[in-house]
Amino acid sequence: MMFNSSSVPLPKCVTPFRIRSNIDLDTDDMHALDSLDRGKEGVIGWLQILAKYCQKSFYIAIVVTMSPISRLSINSTIRLTTGYDMPMIGFGVYQNYNATVSTLEAFKAGYRLIDTAQAYRNEKHVGQAVRESGIDRSKVFVVTKCVSKTHGYETTKKGLDESLSSLEFADYIDLFLIHDPFSGKERRLETYKALLEGKAEGKIRSVGVSNFNIKHIEELREAGYELPAVNQIELHPFCQQKPIVKYCKENNIAVQAYCPIVRGKMDHPVINELATKHSREPAQILLRWSVQHGYVPLPKSEKTERIHSNVDIFGFELDDKDMQTLDALDRGKKGAVSWNPVDVD
């Protein structure tokens, strides 16, 4: 809260739960909020007018709207730097050739973020599921991506329109990512420029990247572009990508975690012990670890029972010792189970 920083806030609400939660921040919360300062660039509404005529800065934080750990729920979200809220857990459809059926099941289980890609060849199936679900479009957060072979200014513009046509449920995509950095600096920049133009045209709400290392994101900054709202990387206890995660947190870039359950390779004594301790499945332990770190995990499955169990991670909490034990499993790049192309030039 602002009064922790010697300011006097005036929050307003008529909901008892929100009234209580508005005064519930710990030291870590304060540090997280302090790091979001954007100076005058962060002001909104009439404050912009005041800032123009007054010799002082007005500070408005773009905040993480997730609750404290003990109150995380399936409805918890992260507010991106673009101002849009992204759900704290998503449903991945990589290698899913029955994506309409499984995405509909995911909606029943409570997921509202769906992660697809042009290369997955199932955008049309995801779009069909969104339409058949009956869920209001504004309540669904759809992610798609363009892979390196389609990178370039004109091809990206064309691909964006094709993705919108394939999804077929609205005139915008919530989050569009550059899928990988393989195309080289010049084409990466051309692709990013095209996506930012798509954002300016209202076809995309937020632009991000995937599998980008620090140097790839710094290229965008050096070119004068806004930083990505999201970086989607392989992320789990065995492959924690600490330098990239640290950089993203310092620059207010949300982190999505793919392969969060290590592609099913979870038969490890530490994970099994914690699963027994909490009477949970190993996958639930790994997914809970992810959300408690502030990542957005993207588990995938076509099995009904697994789709439901993977999102059932909000009825328990890992304590500090549990988290530290899982953190200690990091093997760096050797722990990766996917392509993890973060080191390409």
UniProtKB/TrEMBL annotation:
Gene3D superfamilies, alphabetized = NADP-dependent oxidoreductase domain
List GO molecular-function terms, semicolon-separated.
oxidoreductase activity
SUPFAM superfamilies recorded: NAD(P)-linked oxidoreductase
Residue ranges annotated as coiled coil are: none
Please give the PROSITE patterns that the UniProt record associates with this protein.
Answer: ALDOKETO_REDUCTASE_1 (PS00798), ALDOKETO_REDUCTASE_2 (PS00062)
Highest taxon of the lineage? Eukaryota
Name the Pfam families for this protein: Aldo_ket_red
Task: Please list the residue ranges annotated as the NADP-dependent oxidoreductase domain.
Answer: 105-330
Q: Which InterPro entries does the UniProt record give?
A: AKR, Aldo/ket_reductase_CS, NAD(P)_OxRdtase_dom_sf, NADP_OxRdtase_dom
What keywords tag this UniProt record?
Oxidoreductase
Task: State the similarity comment.
Answer: Belongs to the aldo/keto reductase family.
Q: Protein name, please? A: NADP-dependent oxidoreductase domain-containing protein
